[in-house]
Amino acid sequence: MSTELPVLKANDFASDQDVRWCPGCGDYSILAQMKKMLPDLGLPLEQIVFVSGIGCSSRFPYYMNTYGMHSIHGRAPAVATGLRVARPDLKVFVITGDGDALSIGGNHFIHLLRRNVDVTLVLFNNRIYGLTKGQYSPTSPEGQITKSTPMGAVDHPLNPIRVALAAEATFIARSVDSQVQHLASTLYRAAMHRGTSVVEVYQNCNVFNDGAWDYAKEKAVRADNTLELENGKPLIFGKDRDKGIRLNGFKPEVVDLSSGISQDDLLFHDEKADPIYVQILAGMRYPDFPEPIGVFRDVENDVFEDQVRGQMATATEKKGVGDLNALFNSGDTWVVPETSAAR
Fold first, then answer.
1. What is the helix (H) or strand (E) element at residue 220, kind and residue range?
2. CB count, 10 Å around CB of 333?
C-alpha cells in the first residue's frame, strides 16, 4: 500500500462555505494566496489548523478545508499555544486583525511572541474596526475621523513590527494584500520558520477605511513608497531604482543614487542583524520614507512547546505516569460535616 501523500492543489483547501466578506475586501486576496501557498508545505489537510479570534479576518477558518477554531476575541494566541503543546505534530496558523491582536488581545499577542511558540500569525491590518462598523483601531493614524472619533483620533498608533520586535519575535515580515506574488512567498517563508512568525499584511477595508494603504498599493506610486527587502542586498527603491537608504549617524536618510552616491554607501539588509537595525527599518514610515515590505527578521531560538514537553517527559521519567484521580484527592483536603452543610 502506497504511503505517498496525494498532491494537493489550492482548491483542495477551499471549504464548502460561501465566502462572506464585502465585495472588494482585501481579505479575499489573503485567503487566495494562503490557499495557493499551502500545497507547497506538503502537509495533509488534517495536519493543518487555523485558529482565529473575532473580527472580519477571523472568519478565515470557515473558508479553509482544514481543522479550525473560531475562538474568543483576542485569545487566539492562547488557544494556539495550548494546541501546539498538546499536538506538536500539527501546523498551526493564527489569523487575527489589528483590533483583535493589538487591543483586547495585546497581552496574548506579546506573550505568544516572547515564548516563541511554533505558530504562524497573520495580522490583517486595515487600520479600522471593520466588523463592528468603523471605529478607530490601535493602528489608526492620529487625527483619523471614524464613528468613535468624530473629531479625530488622539491616540498615537501602534507599530505592529516594533511591538513584535520588542517581544523578541524570531520571524517578522510585512506584505500587501494586492501584491499577490510577494504575499504568497512571504506567507510561505513564515510558515517554514520554526518558532513564532508574524506577518503583518496591509489590507484594504473598502467600506470603512477605503484607500488607507493606497500609497503602498497603487501601481503608479508603490515603487517610490515601498522598499522591498532582500537579504544581503542594498536598500534600493524607486520606480527607476535610483534611490537608496543610508545611515547618517544613527538615523536613516533617503539618498539619490544619481548624485554620485555608491550602492556600497547604503545599508545592506540582514535578516539576522542586531534588533537595533530592525528598529530602524520599522521606524521608516510614509511619507518621510518608503515603507519596508518583506522579511525584517529571521533568527532561531528555543521553541516553547519543545521545552514544555521536555519537562513533561522528565517529570514522567522521574515520577511515573500521573493519576488524575489521585491528584484530586491529594494535598490539603477536608471534610464538611453533614450538619454544617445542612445549615
1. none
2. 7
Measured in Å, how far apart are the chain's first and last C-alpha atoms?
Answer: 69
The set of cell numbers assigned to 10 is 489550492
How far apart are alpha carbons 114 and 167 in whole angstroms?
5
pLDDT by residue (tens digit) across 150-197?
Answer: 999 999 999 999 999 999 999 999 999 999 999 999 999 999 999 999
DSSP 8-state secondary structure symbol assigned to residue 260: T
DSSP category for residue 234? B
3-state helix, strand, coil in the chain (%, to 5): 35, 20, 45
Between CA 126 and CA 298, with CA 119 as vertex, the angle to 5 degrees is 80
- 306 vs 334: CA distance, rounded Å: 38
**Residue 253, C-alpha cell as written in the block:** 536618510
CATH architecture designation of domain 10-212: 3-Layer(aba) Sandwich (3.40)
Handedness of CA 21, 27, 32, 38 (dihedral sign): negative
Place of cell 519596508: 292
Per-residue pLDDT reduced to its tens digit, 7-34: 999 999 999 999 999 999 999 999 999 9
Sign of dihedral through CA atoms 30, 32, 36, 41? Answer: positive
Residues contacting residue 131 through CB under 8 Å, at least 6 positions apart? 54, 55, 56
The candidate with the shortest Cα–Cα distance to 226, out of 189, 193, 178, 258, is 178
Planar angle of CA 258, 260, 266, nearest 5 degrees: 90
Going from N- to C-terminal start, the domains of the chain cover: 10-212
Helix (H, G, I), strand (E, B) or coil at 25: coil
Question: Rounded distance, CA 277 to CA 299, Å?
Answer: 14
- Ramachandran area for residue 211 (φ above 0: left; ψ -120 to 50: alpha; else beta): left
Cβ pair 70, 58 in contact under 8 A: yes
CB 50 within 8 A of CB 14: no
